[in-house]
Amino acid sequence: MAEFVALGASIIAVIQAAERIHKVCKFFIENVDNYPSDLRLILIETSSLKAVFQSLEFIDKHDSDASTFLKELKEPGGPFAGCLESVLELEKLVPPGMLPTGTNSTKRRKTESLVNALAWPFKRDKARTLLNDISQYKSTISTAVSVEILQDVQTVKRDIKEVAQKLTDAERHEICSWLDYSDPSLNHNAACALYEAGTGDWVLRTDEWKAWRDKKYRCLWIYGIPGAGKTILAAHLTEELAKLVQTNPSTQPKPGTKVACVYYYCFHARNQDETIPFLRWSVSQLCRKAASIPIQVYDIFKLGTQPTLTQLLVSLEAVLQYFGAVFVTVDAVDESQQRQNLLDVLVDLANDPRFSKLQLLVTSRQYLDIKEVMSKISHPLSMSNPHVEADIERYVVAKVRSTYKFRRWPSWLCDEVQHTLAVGAKGMFRWAVCQLDILRRLNDIGKIRLALNDLPETLDDTYIRILSSIDEEDRPLLRHTLWMISFHSATYTSNKLRVTDNIILSSYTAFSTQDSSANTNHLYTPDALEEVCGCLVTFLHGDVAGMPRRFASLAHYTVREFVESGRSISSPVRYFHCQPDEMSRAMFSSVAQYALNTDVHTPIQAKDSDDPEMLLLDNLENYCQISAIVSLDPLESMIAGDKTLMARVSELLSPSDPRFSGRNQMLSAFFCAPSLHITGTDMKTTHFWDLGWISASTDRDINVLVNLLFGAYRIMSETLASTLHPRRLISAEISVAFEHRDSYANKITVQFGGTVIEFFAQCSKVLDLGALPVRLLYGRLVSELQPPSIDPTTVLAQYSGPHDHDGCEKAYDCVTIVEWLLSLGADPDAPGYPVTPLQIAVANRDVNCIHALLQAGASLNRWGDANGAGWDPGTLMGVLYNGLHGNSPLYIAQHYDAFGFWASRATEFNSIAKLLVEMGAESLSTTQGLGT
């Protein structure tokens, strides 16, 4: 103890000497006009030295664990001794005794003589040498004292430098690809392909456009009736903006900054809230255009989780720093699911000063909810005007002149078509497109003129006429195509994954048993399919692995609206009605049944393809194997309410199915494809196909339940669990393996063997499954078995286990589960186990759980049961927590780095340590000696 008294005394000696020197220098600087300039350097250096040693004084008094490095600093010849010697020598050069005393007038008379008495020219060199020595000693001591803080600072600096300078093009591409959720470029390119030169230019001549372009206001809203051509107009205006950004100097902000143009197309076929995808795409595009990744984006990417709305807005604000202005086109807001969310974001982007560099161009229908929002934040521009009617006439003339079939008609008939359609369109481009398709199919002049004299007035009437004219033998194929596109769109939200003509035609034959009217001996070709579908379906020509393919989608939002609405079911074409639940039920049943009846063939060449996911989806056997699983997310509610479909799911998810392993390999290959985003499925952190089954239970339903819970299918899990007697949950045992990432993101394979309840108690939180499995499974035991057969202490000991607790209170209700188990009588110390729940909670930085355990009476200093058997080394609990045995909770918090926990979490561990100290905890360890 004597050495620590001496240590404290030497610290105080340096502080007092620095104070005396500081006082002398301050006096000269304040009172002497021609004071030596070196005194200011001495003042600054001694002030800094005093601050460092005051920190040392605090550490010496309050942090006994710092004694090791303090001892090293105090060694003879060390920085403490050298610093004290130097500061005392420096004090001799500016002794406090030379300062004047007495009244102010006396002080003033003595001041001038003091400069001479200081004799600084003779002391300057020695003072500078001492200052240099003190600075070096201070630097050494400061580094030792602040090592943890410095490590954090260095980490941040390293990250910033890495993001700003060291990311390769490939790494930037990877981050941007991760951000890309829905790719609207296909929509943009398709709309550009349909654009007729000269149309839409009327917008460029309006005062509204010019004022918005010149940034006199931030948002321009163009609205129109269904079928008015808003999307094609948006594409044209976006192209004009791109030219403007590149060529017009007047749009350039102050020199050295960039101007960019970004677009996003909401699309009904994605069946999603477009808010998050819109922001992800916008941030990604701006990062690509800036050729830089902001640190805010990089930090989210490193977490390995999906970005939240708040994070994306912060990221957007960050990436805007690279630009002077950004023009953003958002098309078809009305096609977004839950569009109020998107409208709220548009309000923020238009009003918030953080996004003042954005110029928003928004298009939509004039629905009341959209009008109410947009009228407050934008300048409106209606498409109901003579300019649009003139554009339609221009379009009709161009199509009649360029279409081979029309060119064979007499010129007078073509003129009649052009005039009649231009007048009858009433501002609807879509209406004109459909009439041209109807007329194109006619070959008799009399019928053509009759059709021109009896044109349908609305789009609904137009679709009824088109569908009524379909040949009887082609009707089943067209309905199958409409249903197949709808099912595919509900399953795969990525534009990149449009259903191919090959899948439509092959599934038409394979699923024919579901429709007695289908022609199983058909000779349809891709050309014939496209001809049958006409203007109802758009086919984009491309290829898959070198094979020519056509990618199908509904031609327009109004097609979907009509076939899904009650208007179609009460019409003469009710055969084509596509009630979503009815369609989904029939298509899922067919797809799942086909998957169960066919072998799995994973194409080896898929990994070498530019589009491996499309290669997998272009073969019907593979398509059904993958789609039967991917569709579980969007169709879960419907499936859970249908016993027949649940039976299909049980077959698909049973490890005893001979196709189960091969199907899982195919799913893994499919979801490893780059830039693949599918709503629901890819938002999950776990998938049942990543679970390795070493030994399945003899109870098939239990195995299926494990896969459902592991895949986070909440509704189907609850449905299946409700049919199982609780005793089946505790009697069935499984043996599985899965990958886990440790604190340093290293992958380790861990195993588990035991009951289903124990498995999810251990793994729910590390797998981001939250409270559902434990509450569902153990809740059944508690409610239906008395006693519940499994002691709540057993569940608590394992449920306290591994997870990153950041934000999980809201997402997973972890603390509620712990409190629930404690209320059921769980012992907070979990006797019989090698590690206590409190030790684990400290290791997890789970402050709320720590409070819950302490309130329940958990021992502050218990370090695990010496007679308790450790978890098996290969299990998750064994890998992560066996090493905590013999160390008190406070010791774990103070020595977190020794247990392999992140140094970046130092602040959290220090806060926990402070809490435990205040509660009276001791730092104890059997491996390091008591009282360490």
UniProtKB/TrEMBL annotation:
The keyword Metal-binding does not apply. Residues 198-365 form the Nephrocystin 3-like N-terminal domain. It comes from the Eukaryota. The keyword Cytoplasm does not apply. ANK repeats lie at residues 833-865. Gene3D superfamilies: Ankyrin repeat-containing domain (1.25.40.20), P-loop containing nucleotide triphosphate hydrolases (3.40.50.300). InterPro entries: Ankyrin_rpt, Ankyrin_rpt-contain_sf, NPHP3-like_N, P-loop_NTPase. Keywords: ANK repeat, Repeat. This is Nephrocystin 3-like N-terminal domain-containing protein.
